[in-house]
Amino acid sequence: MLALLSFIFLLIIFIYIKSPRLSKNEPPLVPYTVPVIGHTFSYFLNTENFIKKCLKEYGEPFNIIIFGKVVTVVAQKYIPEMIKAHENFSSIEVFRELIPLHLILGHDPFVNIDFHAKTTREQISGKLTLHFDRIQKDVLYYLDKQIGECNKPKSVKEIWDFTNHVTAKSIANICMGEEASQHDDVVHAFAVLTDDMNKFFFLPPIFSFIHPKLHEYVISLPFLFGFNPIAKHQKVLINRMKPIVENRIQQKKILGDSYEPSNDLLEFYMSQSDFDSSSVDYNCLSDLIAFMIFAGIGTTGRSLANLLFDYVGNPQCWDELYEEASTINKECNGKLTLNDANKMIKLESFIRESFRHTGDMIIAPRAVTTDHFTFSNGFTVPKGRHVLDFSEDSLFSESVYGPDSKSFKPFQFVSKNVSASKIDKTYLVFGGGRHACPGRFYAVLVMKLFLYHVLLKYHVRTESGNIPKKSMMGPFSVPSKESLIFERRKE
Fold it and tell me: Secretion signal: which residues (predicted)?
């Protein structure tokens, strides 16, 4: 009896300590039944319906409790205010807490996020003309390797894994060069590294009910026993890059000013002022590339899988998309250039619509980094508060996309002449403002080249004949696991 009373007493103290303390003029806190747990289950089990219900009853913004922590939710009306006030918010602070990469990489890559963003913007997106032929070659290589001629129907399973490898082949070439990207172990490392990392970090933060730091401590325990989920992939990267780096250092010594640098990120990293050619830190180089993989492979591969399923699910578009692709292919005599790719306005519109139907409820959560932030309606949120953007409210805005905004409208952007990478207040799939994804131009190009070549060569359908739906993991969507059937297109 004494033990039971002691437990109840400690539980009461714990609940009291963990009870939310809201500051003055905060958004309303949605009522909840279970202390500490709050709205956790309602939020993760049916994010869309839960948030829509809260919006209807309390307006925006409003506060909820997830894993014992107060978070603020904004939707279409106040997302633009948050994006505009970029100096008051940071997505990096949220990702650093949810995905402590320093446990794996040995340092905090988010500290140098501006460097990574600039590298992506200038060395990848800014050089698409130089990268174009390599990207197209790599897309064709993996289509041929994985699908081939398809004189007989071929079933391809695990489409997301397939599209991750398509993306990996291209990014490996841009990051480490042509030589390294020829090796299957390098492409495989690029393709699965993010997934292996996510399996480790994306554990439900159940210990956050007690304290946020306790969750980080628990997931760091395996490292105390020498377990690192991506160590084997980093070993592959180092083994493959080492002879390349050594050869380039030697060539620079021999050729001097006549040395012609390679057009890849490895060369770019070697050109930095802190690079020491006499004592190369290969762990640092692999960490830089690993972060680029983490930032680009999973998201691009997922978008590519979604695009393929959206194409299969909209047979009314097949003829028009094929006709456009076939016309461009004839005009360029089968030698597509970046300028030719930009002429495919129907394909561009289809890709943009596929992004609009991404399925994610939350795109870019942010944390308040200043003392506080006050919305235009007077509600104030304190420093450190996580603010979730209910992006679906913007992506399916009826005032912009009509009363049937949730319908898939493949060619609605053709007349508007807007690219799939262009962001606006109702198209937030790449974030917004100054912190919008710098790699979006590359991602769109890969998707365009991929579907263009699929259109020219294959008929694609689902194995069941039905149109599969995305799965949901809390507020995030996951491409269907259904197989797709590829068959050679007949002239």
Answer: 1-23
Least Cα distance to 166 among 481, 468, 451 occurs for 451
The pLDDT value recorded for residue 175 is 94
Cα separation, 240 vs 227, in Å, equals 22
DSSP alpha helices (H): ranges in 62-182?
79-84, 91-98, 102-105, 113-119, 128-146, 159-176, 178-181
Is 427 strand, coil or helix?
strand
CB of 310 closer than 8 Å to CB of 408: yes
* Residue bearing the bigger pLDDT, 294 or 141: 141
For residue 471, what are its two tokens? 């799965």
280: region left, alpha or beta (phi > 0 left; psi from -120 to 50 alpha): beta
| Residue 437 assigned ligand-binding role | yes
Share of the chain above pLDDT 70, in %: 91
Percent of the chain topping pLDDT 90: 61
Task: Supply the angle between the helices 128-146 and 440-457 in degrees, to the nearest 10.
Answer: 40
- Region 258-273: mean pLDDT is 94
Q: Which residue has the higher pLDDT, 450 or 91?
A: 450
Nearest to 452 by CA among 315, 314, 307: 307
Tell me the mean pLDDT in the region 215-229: 72
Domains in the chain and their CATH numbers?
Answer: 106-358+392-427+429-488 (1.10.630.10)
pTM exceeds 0.85, yes or no: yes
HSE-up (13 A, CA, CB side) for residue 471: 8
What is the four-CA torsion angle of 423, 354, 157, 459, rounded to 10 degrees? -130
- CA-to-CA distance for 240 and 262, rounded, in angstroms? 16
* Positive/negative CA dihedral, 26, 67, 296, 114: positive
Secondary structure of residue 373 in the 3-state scheme: strand
Q: What pLDDT, in 10s, does the model give residues 7-27?
A: 444 444 444 445 566 778 999
Residue 387 token pair: 């603010």
Smallest Cα–Cα separation from 426: which of 396, 390, 394?
A: 394
Q: What is the pLDDT of residue 297?
A: 82
